[in-house]
Amino acid sequence: MIEKRIFDLFFVSIGVLLLLPVFLVISILIKRGTDGPILFKQIRVGRNGRLFKVFKFRTMVVDAEKKGAKITTGGDPRITPSGQWLRKYKLDELPQLFNVLFGRMSLVGPRPEVPEYVDFYSNRQKEIVLSVLPGITDTASIEFRNENDFLTGSSNPVKDYKEKVLPIKLAYYEQYVKERSLWLDFKIIIKTLAAIIK
Prior knowledge:
By secondary structure, this protein is mainly alpha-helical. It contains 9 helices and 4 strands. It has a two-stranded antiparallel ribbon. A two-stranded parallel sheet has the order 3-4. The protein has helices at residues 2-33, 81-88, 96-101, 115-118, 123-129, 139-143, 147-150, 157-179, 182-197, and strands at residues 39-45, 51-57, 106-108, 135-137. A hairpin with a 5-residue loop joins strand 1 and strand 2. The model has no long low-confidence stretch (mean pLDDT 91). Helix content is 53%, strand content 10%.
């Protein structure tokens, strides 16, 4: 809906301008800490099943996906020193503001998954969840803000994610799609900021 797009553009434009100094500091920390690019780009599934590249500040060693699973657990040796801090405060997600500017994401909506995990969705879940733009945050992101710690110690984190975490997330995603409104978006953004501050 056009109102949601205007809502996104208004707040993201302000956010990007205010956060430019933060982007600069984070970029310097990443480059000083490790070799490799500042940004990490990963293929995710967007609205109507379209693939797009999600942007994040790089928090892991170069080619981390070739050295382990796409699921990250707490204490993962692939995470860089600066990456630990960026992940803790969700600062690695900030470049997704540009995904919103480009119209591939929204501020609030179901988190975009990698294609491998979207394959686990039922046809009904795909129809509902992929009918809207994916978001930077949502209720599932708040509830599972410590997801890495939840999977720590798992002998099979991919299996546990698929069977224990993903079904709960999908329930939140479906609930959001059915109840979505600008007021709900605003409340979720406030709750997200409160969770980060805590």
